[in-house]
Specification:
Elements lengths: L2 E6 L3 H15 L3 E6 L2 H10 L4 E4 L8 H10 L3 E6 L4 H6 L3 E3 L6 H13 L12
Parallel strand pairs: 1-2, 1-3, 3-4, 4-5
């Protein structure tokens, strides 16, 4: 069964880069959707719940904190992909990838997929890549 991933970022090139890397590694095992803001992402998630959300932290029209709060209420796994280290994210215990090292999002996704395979109900631990 395909895993669904929602990529949320207000920058087109970041969404495209993430989509390319994920598709290249997981090919047909994932279905990727996109949103350009937190509020648009929340509207999408109300219609269909993704297995995993990869979100920017700083966005207009609904930031990463809003997305994380929504996902936490619905037990959706989240990876934050920020332009810099954000102490507020560290307090949330959510995986954080710094954008200059975007390729490091793949180990986070792999951890998520591995946890799903092992059928563990645990959340991904906090890692800064």
């Amino acid at each position: 069964m395909k895993k669904s991933i929602l990529i949320i970022d207000d920058k087109d090139f970041v969404r495209e880069d993430l989509k390319y890397m994920i598709k290249r590694k997981y090919q047909d095992a994932v279905e990727i959707s996109e949103a350009v803001s937190g509020n648009k992402a929340i509207a999408k998630m109300k219609e269909a719940t993704p297995d995993l959300v990869i979100t920017d932290w700083e966005m207009t029209d609904g930031n990463g904190a809003l997305v994380c709060a929504f996902c936490q209420q619905r037990n959706i796994n989240v990876i934050i992909c920020a332009g810099y280290y954000e102490p507020a994210v560290a307090k949330l215990g959510i995986p954080l990838v710094i954008k200059p090292y975007l390729k490091n999002v793949l180990p986070c996704i792999e951890t998520y997929f591995k946890e799903e395979k092992d059928e563990e109900n645990t959340k991904i631990e906090m890692h800064i890549f």
